[in-house]
Design goal:
The protein is an alpha+beta fold. Helices cover about 35% and strands about 40% of the residues. It has a single domain, classed as 2-Layer Sandwich (Alpha-Beta Plaits), CATH 3.30.70.1060. It has a 4-stranded antiparallel sheet, with helices on one face.
């Protein structure tokens, strides 16, 4: 089942994002459940959030993945929302 993990970074947290980016990308690769992912960009083109599409068994697995993301563990996000998602196109 697909889930969208929609994250908004805390204000002025680009340094936290960059310091944890390598670990975040490694986590994506190691877990093998990310179908698509990428950052949201602000008006200046700087990363300010994340969209991650997970292919996992259920909402509990999606919550577990999101909680263990190095970005989340570093306190990067002001807000995280997880929604079941259906790919159409």
């Amino acid at each position: 089942m697909l889930f969208a993990v929609i994250c908004t970074d805390r204000k002025d947290s680009l340094k936290v994002r960059m310091a944890n980016r390598e670990a975040h990308l490694a986590y994506i690769g190691e877990t093998g459940v990310v179908a698509q992912a990428g950052p949201f960009l602000d008006a200046e083109g700087q990363m300010c959030g994340s969209l991650v599409i997970l292919d996992v068994a259920d909402m509990d697995a999606a919550r577990d993945w999101a909680a263990n993301d190095p970005y989340a563990r570093a306190g990067l996000f002001a807000d995280v929302r997880i929604e079941a998602w259906k790919k159409v196109v």
